[in-house]
Amino acid sequence: MIWRLTLPLAAAALMGGLLAPCLASAQSREALPPEAAYLSANCANCHGPQGRSAGAIPSLAGLPSRYIVEQMQAFKAGTRPATIMHQLAKGYTDAQFELMASYFSSLPKP
Ligand code: HEC
Fold first, then answer.
1. Is the CB of 64 within 6 Å of ligand 1?
2. Which of 4, 9, 60, 97 could hold 104 in an S-S bridge, CB 3.0 to 4.6 Å?
């Protein structure tokens, strides 16, 4: 008889646990200005759609926003060695780094 009570409770807990992170990240992404997603689309060729890379290039989804900004600044300044990112980073401002970093960090980790 106990299962009659515990099964629906377990299902509710499971669904709540699965849905809560999705809702949280969707909300914070919606709060971003539209340019954030627009700028970030330029990174999809290499870092994958939604910042999820299938290959050797690192995924960006779910990385801390501060980390992404610092890496982009280091690429731009030439203090982090790179094959391509030092060239790309030169085309963006700090404000654009912030927008892209907020966008990628709001996506679920792959
Ligand atoms: C032409 C392919 C290409 C494009 C386009 C590209 N990246 Fe990269 N990215 C790389 C590669 C390759 C690396 C590894 C470092 C290197 O060799 O340049 C990298 C590394 C990074 C890292 C460091 C990740 C880590 O785990 O430390 C960040 C952050 C990053 N890219 C952000 C971006 C952003 C933001 C954009 C869009 C403006 C972008 N990348 C567009 C190829 C690309």
1. no
2. 60
Identify the CATH number of the domain in which residue 44 sits: 1.10.760.10
Q: Does 13 reside within a domain?
A: no
Closest by CA to 29, choosing from 13, 46, 58, 51, is 51
Residue 78 · residue 86 · CB < 8 Å: yes
Closest CA relative to residue 59, chosen from 74, 49, 70, 72 = 49
Whether this model's pTM surpasses 0.85: no
Cβ contact 65:105 at 8 Å: yes
Q: Atom 19 of ligand 1 has which residue's CA nearest to it?
A: 85
Is the C-beta atom of 58 inside 6 A of ligand 1? Answer: yes
Residue pLDDT, tens place only, 83-95:
999 999 999 999 9
